[in-house]
Amino acid sequence: MALRQGRWADATSVVDDLQERPLPVRERLLVAGLDAALVHRRGDQAAMERSLESALQLVRRHPVDLTSLMAHAEVALLCARLGMPRRARSLLGQLAGATATVRPGQPFHSVVAAGTALAGLLLEDAELACDGAAALRPSVVPALAAAGTVIEDIARGQVPGDAPEVAWSLVETGLVLEAAIVAGQAALNATTGEQAAPLLKAAREIRARLPRRGADEAVGVGALSEREREIAALVVDGHTYKDIGATLFISAKTVEHHVAHIRTKLGVATRAEMLSTLRAGLPA
After folding, report:
1. How many whole angstroms separate alpha carbon 45 and alpha carbon 246?
2. Partner of 158 for a Cys bridge, out of 50, 86, 153, 252, CB 3.0 to 4.6 A?
3. Domain boundary among 182, 207, 232
4. In this structure, what CATH number is given to the domain that contains residue 232?
5. Of the candidates 183, 207, 231, which is a domain's last residue?
6. Are 169 and 261 members of one domain?
7. Residue 215 lies in a domain
């Protein structure tokens, strides 16, 4: 939910909290899928490659089912982003098989359709993109249904005039990365500056809503997630990472990762600056 609502800090905190915990394979895959989704949205090439390698190890150990559908779809889309067409198509085929009995247009079906359509655009595979777009048009979500038509036009080399509006409607449903791909790929088809300008403007403004590489878009105490505020309060009170970990049932290393995120969001260089900023910003 945090990912779909654009609450990047909260989604990152979930990954940080769970990565080191002893979890069953399915739950580990869900965490890996969330991590893949976040690094994809940040656009950090090295982080995407590391995350994908870890996720693929878990994908091989857990078959696609409805509970892991979102994770597999995010991994497939990241494969397409990193130029791995065979792996992306293999995963998408497994996803299609897992939803074969789901009525077209329903949420599970739309997840697979959207992943297929967007992967097709990224891989410049018109047939794959059109297949996904056709399956997306019956979606019960109006923005996704409209996106199906636009994606099919883009895959065929056209420049849909309503692409910016459709992209922004995807943003309103929480699909920010998907919206950026639609606007950006449509702009690539433009043959004149007049055609490209509104698409490039939409793509640029939409990408600005994605988390920044190595940091979240907001800065200051107000940008901290609930878990980060909890840890920050304990740090201000003088507790060690080990003590905080024992209190919150997480490892000291995870606490250290949270503190690193906190310092980044606060824009401070030293521990003293962090403590001073937290004392001024946190409620007494």
Report:
1. 34
2. 153
3. 207
4. 1.10.10.10
5. 207
6. no
7. no
> CA 203 → CA 111, 149, 151, 181, 219, distances in Å?
22, 18, 15, 8, 23
Instruction: Look at residues 137, 50, 59 and name the one whose alpha carbon lies nearest to residue 92.
Output: 59
One-letter amino acid for residue 122 of the chain: L
201 lies in the same domain as 230: no
Tell me, yes or no, whether 55 lies in a domain.
yes
In this structure, the answer to whether residues 271 and 157 fall within a common structural domain is no
pLDDT confidence bin for 40, thresholds 50/70/90: very high
Same domain? 133 vs 13: yes
Asked whether residue 111 carries a pLDDT value surpassing 80, the answer given is yes
Tell which residue, 127, 149, 154, 151, has the closest CA to residue 137: 149
* pTM (2 d.p.): 0.76
Here the tokens at position 205 are 């403004």
- DSSP H/E element including 219: none
**Residue 64: which residues within 8 A CB-CB, separation 6 or more?**
72, 91, 94, 95, 97, 98
Say if residue 239's pLDDT is above 60. Answer: yes
Number of domains in the chain: 2
Which positions ≥6 away from 183 have C-beta within 8 Å? 163, 164, 167, 199, 200, 202, 203, 206
Residue 226 banded pLDDT, cuts 50, 70, 90: confident
Q: How far is Cα 9 from Cα 248, in angstroms, rounded to an integer?
A: 18
Q: Which among 32, 29, 119, 112 is positioned nearest to 73, based on CA atoms? A: 112
The residues facing 215 across adjacent strands are 212
What the block records as the tokens of 237 is 């009170």
User: Does residue 201 surpass a pLDDT of 60?
Assistant: yes
